[in-house]
Specification:
The structure holds two protein chains of two kinds.
Chain A: H1 2-32, H2 39-51, H3 59-88, H4 90-112, E1 127-130, E2 133-136, H5 137-158, H6 163-170, H7 172-177, H8 182-208, H9 214-229, H10 234-255, H11 260-274
Antiparallel strand pairs in A: 1-2
Helix pairs in contact in A: 1-5, 1-8, 1-9, 1-10, 2-3, 2-4, 2-8, 2-9, 3-4, 3-8, 9-10, 9-11, 10-11
Chain B: E1 2-12, E2 15-26, E3 30-34, H1 41-49, E4 56-61, E5 64-65, H2 72-76, E6 79-82, H3 94-104, H4 110-120, H5 122-126, H6 137-149, E7 155-159, H7 167-182, E8 186-191, H8 194-200, E9 203-208, E10 211-217, H9 218-221, H10 225-231
Parallel strand pairs in B: 3-8, 3-9, 6-7, 7-8
Antiparallel strand pairs in B: 1-2, 1-4, 4-5, 9-10
Classes of the chains: A mainly alpha, B alpha/beta.
């Protein structure tokens, strides 16, 4: 029982981090039909900005820089690169995002080195003991901050003003012709996805240690989480990621820690074969 | 206020589908653009609404040329579209569909506008909390028109209203359109069903092969052979 609770904590923590990436996939995909595989690299970049670059600045300033740059990189890459490729062929834009991820990876490797860097949690080393379950301040922060971000986003989308975004999600052209400034909303959603990715990087780094190569894994696992829930809906993409985090923790705890990554991708393949719309999704809505 | 489309050409890629279209419309009149399937009516409309960027020409509305502006700018200056195939926002409720349309153009008195639209289409009031995607075709058409009307436009553009509608419903919708024109709205109808369009409009244009063949009052047009062919469905 204690082990189960401990694994639930671990699963919620990793699941929340996957969920932050998955949210980015889901908002961008529903708005534009584009899948941004650079989100993982953006998370990695967020981690480096918060923990490695600018060592002289206070921690909170470095976190703000990481979030701001995260938003700018996300918005900039859409307007300068992906958007133009997407007009001709969406697949070209998707492949371009992989290329951009590698470019980020190489820039970080050349400027900060290819070795793993320890990242101390900004929340300190405190560990809380709840009965037999221990949870670190960092883990608690991951779960609480992510929950706040997820709830905030879902409430915003569900609000009266958020209806414009939902209208765009359902029919972008009609939304535009009705006077909704879809290009501006898309920019905002890219900024949101960039901030969420940076937060994921800031949260993941102290758990995983920072390396230029952590991005690809985050990008793919976040994508699996989004697919598991259903890419076309934000709430289910988040839920799918948390389910994936829990699955991974249970598998590591009860079956084999070595094969946890293999499990993630096995889940991915199974979902795509059995329920391409996602376990929680309703209808597969493929936009081209 | 006046809509003036001058020498408009619209195409996709290198292919121009519509060439040199001229048409005009004053607020307070209903004008139809009729023609057979594939004549270029919808492409003309997409060019006017900014959904496809015109390759040349002007779309002047109230003195401003919108041809090179983003599509959303038209709604903000008083042009509302009822799209072909209705295109209601399925995952939004009927009420949200209307509210989002008012907010999109920065409209005030949201509640009053929605009430007025529901007075016009009482069926929508009963369905207010339902998802628009679950409405019947006729109800969706009413919602699409109501969604345009809550924006309080000066010009209403209606694309292929009759497609897929039961005759009894487009009778009803047609009645609503007549009421709007007498209230001083400009209406531009793009219709394959020439008989229906000409019964609602005072002037019309006949389009074929990507060009305007002729234009005039409905009276004049009904004497033209080309229109007669279309009118009576002869091939």
């Amino acid at each position: 029982m204690d082990k189960l609770l401990q694994l639930i904590v671990a699963g919620l923590v990793t699941g929340s981090i996957y969920g932050l990436i998955a949210t980015g996939y889901a908002v961008i995909y529903t708005a534009t039909g584009f899948v941004n595989f650079a989100l993982g690299a953006q998370a990695m970049l967020g981690g480096y900005l918060a923990y490695v670059y600018f060592p002289g600045l206070p921690q909170w300033v470095r976190i703000v820089v990481s979030l701001v740059v995260g938003a700018l990189v996300s918005v900039g890459s859409w307007h300068l690169l992906y958007k133009w490729a997407a007009k001709r062929a969406m697949l070209a834009a998707v492949i371009m995002s992989f290329a951009l991820a590698i470019v980020f990876e190489e820039i970080i490797r050349l400027s900060a080195g290819g070795v793993n860097v320890a990242a101390p949690s900004p929340f300190g080393r405190t560990v809380f003991q709840l009965g037999a379950v221990s949870i670190s301040a960092h883990q608690l922060a991951v779960v609480v901050v992510s929950a706040v971000l997820f709830t905030g986003l879902v409430l915003m989308l569900g609000s009266k003003r958020g209806a414009a975004v939902r209208a765009m999600f359902s029919d972008a052209e009609t939304a535009e012709v009705l006077g909704i400034r879809t290009a501006r909303l898309t920019t905002i959603l890219f900024a949101v996805s960039g901030v969420f990715a940076a937060v994921a990087g800031i949260f993941a780094a102290p758990l995983l240690t920072l390396s230029p190569y952590m991005g690809l894994n985050l990008a793919l696992i976040g994508f699996v989480g989004a697919i598991l829930g259903g890419l076309g809906r934000i709430g289910t993409a988040i839920a799918g990621s948390i389910v994936l985090g829990l699955l991974e923790a249970f598998f590591a705890g009860y079956v084999s820690a070595d094969f946890r990554t293999a499990l993630v991708y096995a889940v991915f393949v199974l979902v795509l074969v059995i329920r391409p719309a996602g376990l929680l999704g309703r209808v597969a809505k493929v936009k081209v | 206020m006046r809509l003036e489309v001058e020498n408009l050409s619209v195409g996709y890629g290198d292919v121009s589908v519509v060439r040199g279209v001229d048409l005009h419309l004053e607020v307070g009149e209903a004008v139809c653009l009729v023609g057979p399937n594939g004549a270029g009516k919808t492409t003309t409309l997409r060019g006017i609404m900014g959904l496809t960027k015109p390759t040349s020409g002007a779309v002047r509305w109230d003195g401003t040329d919108h041809a090179s502006k983003a599509a959303w700018s038209r709604a903000h200056s008083g042009i509302a579209l009822v799209p072909e195939g209705r295109h209601v926002f399925g995952p939004l409720t009927v009420g949200e569909n209307l509210e989002v349309a008012v907010r999109a153009v920065g409209g005030k008195r949201i509640g009053a506008r929605i009430d007025a639209a529901m007075d016009r289409f009482p069926r929508l009031r009963e369905r207010r909390g339902q998802l628009a995607g679950l409405l019947s075709g006729g109800e969706q058409q009413m919602l699409a028109i109501a969604r345009a009307l809550v924006q309080e436009p000066r010009l209403l553009v209606i694309d292929e209203m009759s497609l897929g509608l039961a005759p009894v419903i487009y009778e009803q919708v047609g009645e609503a359109v007549r009421g709007l024109v007498s209230d001083g709205l400009g209406v531009l109808m793009v219709e394959q069903n020439a008989a229906l369009a000409m019964s609602l409009c005072s002037r019309g244009y006949l389009m074929s092969g990507g060009e305007i063949l002729l234009g005039g009052t409905v009276e004049e047009m009904s004497h033209e052979d080309a229109v007669a062919h279309l009118y009576f469905g002869a091939v």
